[in-house]
Amino acid sequence: YTEAWDADKKSIHVMPDTPDILLAKANAANVSNKLYVQAWEEAKKKGYDMRADAIPIKTAKASRDIASDYKYKETHEKEKGHYIGCPSAKEDPKLAWAARAMALQNDRLYKKAYNDSKTQIHIPVDALSVQAAKECQTLVSDVDYRQYLHQWTCLPDQNDVIHARQAYDLQSDNVYKSDLEWLRGIGWLTEGSVDVVKAKKAQELLNDRLYRTRPEQLKFTSITDSPAVVLAKTNAMQLSDV
Fold first, then answer.
1. What pTM value is reported for the model?
2. Are residues 239 and 233 in contact, defined by beta-carbon separation less than 8 angstroms?
3. What does the DSSP 8-state code read for residue 81?
4. Which are the contacts of 205, defined by CB distance < 8 A and separation ≥ 6?
5. What is the widest separation between alpha-carbon atoms in the chain?
6. Per-residue DSSP letters for 121-173?
7. Which of 12, 136, 219, 220 has the most Cβ atoms closer than 10 angstroms to its Cβ?
């Protein structure tokens, strides 16, 4: 079936100067990256001259110096015709403004008037603010706040003194803890205490041996003639290669 087509393929010959072939070669040359950078690669192989006294280097340096000098003097050139002569520096508005700003920023001159007027202030003793401050000091004073009571002398056999002494003994820390004195030095075993029992119960809950039962400990006997076992045996015999 393909014998005639194979024979025709061997006999076909395309001329190299046909328009399609020429167009394909032109497109390949246009999209070729190697041809695109060929001139640059050849220029790199020739090397380059970067001497300090080369004309392009000197031109670049001169242009940089000119631009730098122009930018540096640009503000000065703009203000050349705006200056007005002054007989002294104090009459120059800009210098006077700068001196004023420096004086305002100086902390010593800023506080000079305040420091001079501090010693000239006189407050009368009976001024309202002074009286209010004294009253406030009296209210917050610890000496005036605490007034100790008079030391009374009572007989030791009075009923109120005896009753107060008994109440004091009941509230006393020594009397309150006197019933625990007999416990000192007595031995005590921790077995059976609440913390020990709680720890044992927690250990039993976390014990994996008690939580899980091993398969060999279970009493189980498989039935040999059950339907599932018989079906499994039949399937095994059907799938056996022997």
1. 0.18
2. no
3. G
4. 211
5. 150
6. ----TT-HHHHHHHHHHHHH-HHHH--PPP-----TT-HHHHHHHHHHHHH-H
7. 136
